Amino acid sequence: MKDYLFIYRIDEDTTQAMANRSPEDLQAVTQQWMDWIGGIAAQNKLAERGNRLFPAGRVLRPGGVVSDGPYTEIKEFISGYSIVKAASMDEATKLAESCPGLTFGGNVEIREVNQL
Amino acid sequence: MKQTELIPHLFRAEYRKMVSVLIRLFGIEHIEVAEDIVSDTFLTASELWGLKGVPAEPVAWLYTVAKNKTRDYLKRNKVFSKIVSDQTLQPKSDIEEIDIDLSSKNINDSQLAMMFVVCHPGNPPEAQIGLALSLLCGFGVDEIAQAFLTNTKNIYKRLQRAKQKLRLEKIRVEQPTLAEIDHRLPEVSMTLYLLFNEGYYSAGSNTTLRKDLCSEAMRLSLLLIENEQTNQPYINALYALMCFQSSRFDARSNVKGETILYQNQDKALWDTDLIAKGEFYLNKASYGDVLSKFHIEAGIAYWHTRSDDIDKKWVHILQFYNYLLVLEYSPIAALNRTYALSIVHGKEKAIEEAEKIALNGNYLYHSLLGELYTDVNNSKAIANFQAAIELLHSPAERIVLSQRITSLKCS
């Protein structure tokens, strides 16, 4: 088994639309995420549940250059991450297939963790 | 109470108290001396009470005799009394003045101190539970053997090894410091959790004994709650969990001792006092920022005490199982989650998830798959019930599953 990092990305417009939803809708979205991550954990393939990230942030560049927002050109940002256990990249990709983020126009980047 | 019942009853209730106090007095090196003195006290009681009748205050009588026997022992064993006076009783060299304090406060303090001793991580969990049953609960070797479904010889050896380990590690029997409580309380609470589960889920057929195990785990947990330093939110959650679970004790098996599944239980037999108690302690557990496994399991157990017509009951249970699995994987949680999922999202979705958790060879897994495939794909249902039967040892449960197969073949 190897570790794979799931990086969840979502675009700004979707986030704006989500913010306007009712609390019940948001609760339902949280439940979908928990059902999905619980399904991975039930297979004993969750290494770390990870976290969700707030949209706002800063980027620091050499020379003390600070810019607001985690993105510059594209309107897409990282909304969270988890680490799963899988035998191969194919298996990890399969685990990501039912990620609820995909149904909201987001995407999942899957990266094998390079254990030092 | 008849005299034939009185001594076993007093033995169960008083043995552990006197043993804790004496072990604390003598130190861990002399567990056997403490046990011998207390056993001898009960022997004297059964001889004398049979001849002269039961004294007016049997407990006070036992305490007085135990104190005298302790003093006699110390007198007879000069070397030993030197050890005792050097180590713990230096100012009181006169044996007559040694205070053998059997006040309820000292009994509680001693039992608490002993809890931290018997739950020492130097011993494996099953040895810790054995020691707890022997020294903290006053269970006999034969009862412990029954609870663990093994023979007395094994238990005797296990207890000897465990005591030897405590002696070698020179564990001190004393009130734990605040730092020790932070560090060791999780282990102590885990042993109590396992002790409770041993009683609640064990395959043993002696229902009275299993109930005793559960109530002992509850008594010791309450001891932790009553002590200010150990009264942590997660201990309250543990106690709430135990209350909710044991509320169904009388409903979960029939007169023949066969298991009645949750969905078929007579809800009138659920103990509402215990449920209310569980709610009280779950509220007390809702402080601080640690969401323990006990909190989540108590949440699941709480929702199981609610009636099925409550909206979202199973949605809540499913969510708690998700949290539990994210916190810590266990096959049983994975199976229970899948069952909750089938109620919330339907059988098709649950079958999809059940196939993924792949616990082949686990009879509960095959029973669950049999359940889920029933009316969806009956030949797969039969194959899974068949696989479960082959893995089962209990004839009663085999019969239940065979009946399922027969009714599926007829439909």
Describe this structure in words.
Chain A has four helices and six strands. Chain A has a single domain, classed as Dimeric alpha+beta barrel (Alpha-Beta Plaits). Chain A has 116 residues and is of the alpha+beta class. Chain A is flat. In chain A, strand 3 and strand 4 form a beta hairpin. Chain B folds into five domains: 101 residues, no CATH class; 125 residues, no CATH class; 66 residues, no CATH class; 53 residues, no CATH class; 53 residues. Chain B is 71% helix and 0% strand. Chain B contains 19 helices and no strands. Chain B is elongated. The interface between A and B is medium-sized, with 12 and 19 residues.
Largest sheet of chain A: 4 strands, antiparallel
End-to-end separation of chain A in angstroms reads 15 Å
The CATH H-level homologous superfamily of chain A = Dimeric alpha+beta barrel
- How large is the share of residues in beta strands of chain B? under 5%
Brief account:
The complex is a heterodimer of chains A (116) and B (411). With 116 residues, chain A is an alpha+beta fold.
Keywords for this entry:
heterodimer; A: 116 residues; alpha+beta; Alpha-Beta Plaits; four-stranded antiparallel beta sheet; two-stranded antiparallel sheet; 4 helices; 34% helix; flat; B: 411 residues; mainly alpha; 5 domains; elongated
Write the layout of secondary structure elements.
The complex is a heterodimer of chains A (116) and B (411).
Chain A: E1 2-11, H1 12-19, H2 23-42, E2 46-52, E3 58-61, E4 65-68, E5 76-86, H3 89-96, H4 100-103, E6 107-112
Antiparallel strand pairs in A: 1-5, 1-6, 2-5, 3-4
Chain B: H1 3-26, H2 31-52, H3 58-76, H4 78-87, H5 104-118, H6 125-136, H7 141-147, H8 152-168, H9 178-201, H10 207-226, H11 233-246, H12 272-285, H13 293-304, H14 313-327, H15 331-345, H16 347-357, H17 363-373, H18 378-391, H19 395-410
Helix pairs in contact in B: 1-2, 1-3, 1-5, 2-3, 5-6, 6-8, 7-8, 9-10, 9-11, 10-11, 11-12, 11-13, 12-13, 13-14, 14-15, 15-16, 15-17, 16-17, 17-18, 18-19
